Amino acid sequence: MSGIFGCFDVDGNCDNVVRSAYYGIFSLQHRGQESAGIAVNNGGAFLCHKNDGLVADVFDDMTLSALQGTSAIAHCRGGSSGISGSDAIQPSVIKSRVGNIALTSDSVIMNDDALREELKGLGAIFQTNTDSEIILSLFSRNRIKTEDCEHAILETMKQIRGVYSMIFMTDNKLIGVRDPFGLRPLVLGRKGSFYFLSSETCALDAVDAEFVRDLEPGEVVSISRDKVTSVKLNGGAENKADGKVCLFEYVYVARPDSVIDRMSVFDSRYRAGLALAKEQPCDVDLVIGAPDSGNAAAEGFAQGLGVHYGAGLLKNRYVGRTFIKSTQTQRELAVKMKFAVLRTAIAGKRIAIVDDSLVRGTTTGHIISFLRANGAAEVHVRLASPPVRFGCCYGVNAAEEELPAATKSVDEIRDMIGADSLGYISLEALKESLSTIDCGVCSACFDGCFIAGRPDKSIDSVHKVTYS
Amino acid sequence: MSGIFGCFDVDGNCDNVVRSAYYGIFSLQHRGQESAGIAVNNGGAFLCHKNDGLVADVFDDMTLSALQGTSAIAHCRGGSSGISGSDAIQPSVIKSRVGNIALTSDSVIMNDDALREELKGLGAIFQTNTDSEIILSLFSRNRIKTEDCEHAILETMKQIRGVYSMIFMTDNKLIGVRDPFGLRPLVLGRKGSFYFLSSETCALDAVDAEFVRDLEPGEVVSISRDKVTSVKLNGGAENKADGKVCLFEYVYVARPDSVIDRMSVFDSRYRAGLALAKEQPCDVDLVIGAPDSGNAAAEGFAQGLGVHYGAGLLKNRYVGRTFIKSTQTQRELAVKMKFAVLRTAIAGKRIAIVDDSLVRGTTTGHIISFLRANGAAEVHVRLASPPVRFGCCYGVNAAEEELPAATKSVDEIRDMIGADSLGYISLEALKESLSTIDCGVCSACFDGCFIAGRPDKSIDSVHKVTYS
Amino acid sequence: MSGIFGCFDVDGNCDNVVRSAYYGIFSLQHRGQESAGIAVNNGGAFLCHKNDGLVADVFDDMTLSALQGTSAIAHCRGGSSGISGSDAIQPSVIKSRVGNIALTSDSVIMNDDALREELKGLGAIFQTNTDSEIILSLFSRNRIKTEDCEHAILETMKQIRGVYSMIFMTDNKLIGVRDPFGLRPLVLGRKGSFYFLSSETCALDAVDAEFVRDLEPGEVVSISRDKVTSVKLNGGAENKADGKVCLFEYVYVARPDSVIDRMSVFDSRYRAGLALAKEQPCDVDLVIGAPDSGNAAAEGFAQGLGVHYGAGLLKNRYVGRTFIKSTQTQRELAVKMKFAVLRTAIAGKRIAIVDDSLVRGTTTGHIISFLRANGAAEVHVRLASPPVRFGCCYGVNAAEEELPAATKSVDEIRDMIGADSLGYISLEALKESLSTIDCGVCSACFDGCFIAGRPDKSIDSVHKVTYS
Amino acid sequence: MSGIFGCFDVDGNCDNVVRSAYYGIFSLQHRGQESAGIAVNNGGAFLCHKNDGLVADVFDDMTLSALQGTSAIAHCRGGSSGISGSDAIQPSVIKSRVGNIALTSDSVIMNDDALREELKGLGAIFQTNTDSEIILSLFSRNRIKTEDCEHAILETMKQIRGVYSMIFMTDNKLIGVRDPFGLRPLVLGRKGSFYFLSSETCALDAVDAEFVRDLEPGEVVSISRDKVTSVKLNGGAENKADGKVCLFEYVYVARPDSVIDRMSVFDSRYRAGLALAKEQPCDVDLVIGAPDSGNAAAEGFAQGLGVHYGAGLLKNRYVGRTFIKSTQTQRELAVKMKFAVLRTAIAGKRIAIVDDSLVRGTTTGHIISFLRANGAAEVHVRLASPPVRFGCCYGVNAAEEELPAATKSVDEIRDMIGADSLGYISLEALKESLSTIDCGVCSACFDGCFIAGRPDKSIDSVHKVTYS
Lengths: 468, 468, 468, 468
Prior knowledge:
Largest sheet of chain A: 7 strands, antiparallel
Largest interface: A-B, 60 and 60 residues
Low-confidence stretches of chain A: 80-85, 457-468
CATH topology of the largest domain in chain A: Glutamine Phosphoribosylpyrophosphate, subunit 1, domain 1
CATH architecture of the largest domain in chain A: 4-Layer Sandwich
Radius of gyration of chain A: 23 Å
Strand content of chain A: 25-35%
CATH class of the largest domain in chain A: Alpha Beta
Oligomer: homotetramer
């Protein structure tokens, strides 16, 4: 997963453009904290700085000051770039027949290998293993045959099969693209003469911009100095309501203060917790969240049950950044360091712990034994999403064989993790928790309907879309 | 403030000693995150690695592997070391007539200038501005005239006036020291052949050690391969109950899962919240904590009022590490980035926000306007500690002129921060929240009784202790 | 200018391959010391490490150990890579339809802009401004239409107009290429099962390899596990004797212990000095070299005159790496730091200082005043190459307007630099100094015959070659 | 060995002070290239920056700009500082009863252990293993009992036994000190309102200063804003002519363009070469120097013999900085990389190679086989210093068991290194080569007269000096 952000000043000034981009990706780091980069358009020259590390480590004041531009795109990503230096980190910046192009994308391309081979057969060379290079190579060829960048992008969208949000920066435009199903979120914002494109609204709040609207599935929004235009790909979701935004954005990925397709992420989680209390009640003394992603649902669950909601486990805020584990003993100690347990708050009590989801189950198992070792009388687990039964290549990024819910019953999973009881919200209730959403959802990891196909399988016929 | 940690294997093995020290200070970083260091005793040779930065940045696997030893002391501290390199970062390692001595301390010495001048008058030279160098210089001279290290430490304690916890590592001992009033916490732990000394119990939990006991005020605990001994300074608190542990450890400094002098930090905060609900009730729809230090008291306050406790503000976990602010506009944006506000959770509601304390009041003011801007109908502030009226050099580290409570009434402060109402817990109720504590408390920042004196003033006559 | 080096073990082992590459470019750093890189073929996976800096700074033992491979290519280059990271540093590594290709080149392409535009028109994208990317893009397209890599390279050579030596590394070959005129040197060496390609023989000496032969102009030598083959471009120099190796390689660029096209570089310089003594004798007490590049000719000049040859100026071996100059005064001081003058050796004496060439003349002027200020009675300048009258884009890399000899007479230059007399060797004598050379020479910077054309001018008709 | 440099502007301005210090140590790096540091007096505050590495790597423009001061001292040194950071790198900066003191020294203290123990017995603590810390600790105690810094230094000189040059920087003075025998050189220079102290005159040339005079043995020169004063230690050399400057400074250590005690280093080497030609002639075709330290003597030797002097071996200027060697094979290759051999210049010739000295003999042996392998018909070795028979702790820093001349005859050494003949200059002739010197010399490494004693032996009674 990645966070992407773009900024364009229609007045053509450089003030605050790069700093807005910096604040933008700073606020999107929950989507990826391994590398960061910013590219700016400095009067036609494209400058780019990017590196492995947190945003605060990659950029300092001097670097930002050197990145003057009237438009900027920025990226943060999970997964490090390996031995070969900064080549694989985004934004990608190239020169083509129509000038400079920079690209930042949050994408998973299903037919990447086929496209790469096809392009190689036409003489293209590849310097990285990134999706960006494929997209830019396709775009560049399409651009020769099309009247403008927007149509070259539409042609490119017909060729790639996958889920993505992308921001292109050209010599005179900033162009946002949401995939035909709208699986990945992308929003348009504005403040004075500045336009913004962002993975999530929380980054608009960080730069004090107002939310304009979500991009529609398959939409290409193009910002230039004199106008903002929009075109849409035929063959994807016709209406926004037919879109399929990833349900896991609400469940886990997005920041709770973001609003995706008109639905507040925090509210969706809180409401899922309320619904969970109805579907899977339990008799406990205290409801706690699995920190921090389970907290919102836990609050709703406690409210629904009428039981006290409080802290029981706290996350060590210094962990998350790498720290050193080597021997087995030390690795077990390491688990203890990730969480602080409030012993006096839980000792002797019947505890319900609410988590956003159960993917592999390892951490949940550790937490349960940790709570018991610190005196919890009972530990009941409640999950604010249904059993994750299908390995999803779009987002969850787990293989099916790693997923207990793919093969085990709820009781078997309960025993595996050592809980006194285990309850999942139903998919229907989870979908109902999205009360104000104006888009459909993809729940492939729960129901197996992979609308954009899977890399190693043929596309599910039912969900197949026509890429003309 | 600093975190200190020591480890000693009475079996004389090197396995896990330095890694325990690493985990120890990793868990104490809430006490100081600007620099970190570890020194080990490697068969008489003392090795030390230290640098500016977070523990995870200062140490990597290779560095730890190079630091083999049978005992170790470690340090993390707030405040960077400046231009002159690593000299000022702890642990300090010296050679004296009786061999190697390493020291790590969490200290504020009141008579540091006088001691430094006195030592200079005897020919001593100083290479840093640290307390450690004074303490080691005094200790080294005292050691010449005393039979053992422990008595040299007692002599040193008679000369220094201040608050401190310290761990000395010598060629064959690990020695923990708590100041005569017990202002700073220090605990003894054990696991198998390992003894530990730590600022807080949370670090004992991190290394899976059992808590043995708090050091008593003025106590010197010495661990060697064949025995653990204890001596105590005359002239400090006679009994543990006469000690004066810093109340702010409970209010703000310590990690909630730590237990200091037999009292759980989380419980003390939760109970303070309960008491605050009795003393300063208010009619609201939602109680939220000022993240993260106000959360425990907020939970208790909500429980006391019988009102819903939930999230309203979340702290961005990537902030706290430096990030770039330059122009005024950007600085205001920066405030927005520190906190995520859950707009839908607070909009239209009457909110009570509970904070641990109000020192300067700037951040509280920002938070209130932030909540209002996002739709809060009313914002009531409740504080789980009394007005901070005295500039405390021991811990709070604020000058009196910065403290609104030093000169303003509660109503004036309420207006200053823009709250609908403002309520403080009383000092009596705060002290009562420490139900199981077995030590007295220092509440100098609230009542002005500075038992160890202040740097620029003569010692309060009432509280004067005889340093023979 | 760059140094390029390749290594291939026909036995298919990894031992010493990368270390040979390391030693190879270490010995070629006089050709470029700003960046360095090595790529290896590790069983089909291509690994690459490259960075700005000296070879000794870019690589350490750990990095080399990670670069295991059965073949390797390496590069060192003058000129830093700018803000965008390591993308522009060689070797370049790409994936094409026929697998991995790595390239390292010492090249100046005259028609680079035209080629880049042509490729862009076909949809190619460019991520850097390097020649390598153009060459790889052309090669990759040509490879689709040709039976093997060697013919794809020949096709590419027909498209590019310029001077170059190149080494390609493919999944199973190492291929060396010398431009149609042989302007840049490239040699083949061997030691046991190892084959080497190198810019100069000095790097073969460094790895203890025997010299096999110079590549011929327009030759493509291909090394695979079972054979070494050679093909040659039609349209360049038919015979080796028609080649045009750059005369400046002998005058200045190459290391004195290298042998290029059968002529020892040191001997050529020494012989030029002897000839200079005949053509431009002078009555002096001491002959010194302009350190270090004038030393060999100075030795010959002194021998020719029968005058004492000795040291007068020494070069500070720590300069050459950047050092700090800021104010005007300090910049003048900086000149003093570059050279140590042996005052007692020159005071009161008539000095002849021999330099390899006079390009801009600034340093020579500084040296003359420096010698006078330290007591030299007379300072006579002798140059072991003719007046540099034409801005050469192949190697000397100076614009015509910077060259005093383009517009000034010898007397005017003498006055400009403040010498008592000034004498140049004739072009005929310089060419005669190359007694054993088996190739022709390019003397464009002296006579203006640019055989491969100039970037902004049409190709000299006389010298035009047919690129079919 | 170290290089030390100091700068003091009597006009009290900051302009160019730190940059002069930078240029000063830049020019002294031949005395030590492992670490570098500069301390400045900034209106009473002492700022210091130091690190491992070359001067050009330790300092950049920003660092220098931050080091504003009206006086500065600087240091460069051989030998790295180990794991414990920058503590052991000079300058050392301390605070004492009389204010800030910074010290930079080029010293070997014989009685360091005894002094350290004595000081420890008085309560002193040591944070490093450096001489500086001992000297500063002694000085600081002495300063309490004396009227001024100069007398405190004299008292300190009575306590330390060894060889040294030192520069102290105090709040208002810059004080240069040369040891009682003048073994280490130290000179005073001046330019306008700037005074300089430097290990060698070459650094005065670098900052364009005029040489004022050498310090006398045992002299303390003190520069303040209103005067320059001098005091001298009783008990050392009474007159300058009784001093004992280290002969190895002329033979090897100093830069050839330096003048020590009125004798040009280059001239002394050249004259030694002339004398060597008389004492140890040989019948050869070419005389070459062992690069670079043998070149001056080789030039004189060739002149004396009337034989051609020329280049045969060149030193790779990129070696000297660490480069990687690992396997035995690679280590042998490494030797080849250090030197470029000019094969055509030496092939078939009888060669005399002149080196400054033969200490361990390993490199000389390698060079001889290298010359033979490249075709030299005969290789005769001539040495411009006598057999090094005594392990010298002052400078040469080799143990006696490493010295072939301690146990072997000249013939045996000749066979060991594989030369056709071997000839040493006599000690008498070497001393005579110092025609203009105004000081005596120490030739302990040749004759065993250790005037300042040796660390593990009692002082030679004959040479004992009275330290009152």
